[in-house]
Amino acid sequence: MKSFAFFLFTALSAAGLSAQAQTAPAIAQAATGTQTVQFKTSAVCDMCKARLEKSMAYEKGVQSATLDVPTKVLTVNYRPDKTSVAALRTAVLKTGYDADDQTADAHAYGRLPDCCKKTAAAH
Ligand SMILES: [Cu+2]
């Protein structure tokens, strides 16, 4: 019984160590100066998600971009020495989507397929 308790303790310690190892990359990323910003967009579906994430990936200074379709929130990891929140917001607008209280670029919005328009029902 005592040896089982020891095994359990060892297993828990190992789990704790691996959890620590997993958080290490996030700390390293912060050390390189990456920042995160979130925009509330007008995206409606997975096509919007793919379009926005691809568009942001081509944007200078962007490390990663993820859209959560249910909440329409776009999370962008970026390098503040390469770009700015204003530039990133403009990139969202020029892809055809609203960003927070700013309305999408009309031309870009017009090029979106009907299913990606703000009037489209969730699908
Ligand atoms: Cu869409």
Plain-language structure description:
The protein has four helices and three strands. By secondary structure, the protein is an alpha+beta fold. Strands 1-3-2 form a three-stranded antiparallel sheet, with helices on one face. Helix 2 (46-57) crosses helix 3 (85-95). The chain is 48% helix and 15% strand. The model is unreliable at 17-28 (pLDDT under 50). The chain has helices at 2-31, 46-57, 85-95, 106-111; strands at 35-40, 62-68, 73-78. The protein folds into two domains: 1-29; 32-116, Alpha-Beta Plaits (2-Layer Sandwich), CATH 3.30.70. Bound molecules: copper (II) ion (CU). The site of copper (II) ion has 6 residues, from helix 2. Copper (II) ion is lined by residues 44-45, 47-48, 115-116.
Could you give the topology of this structure?
Elements: H1 2-31, E1 35-40, H2 46-57, E2 62-68, E3 73-78, H3 85-95, H4 106-111
Antiparallel strand pairs: 1-3, 2-3
The site of copper (II) ion has 6 residues, from helix 2.
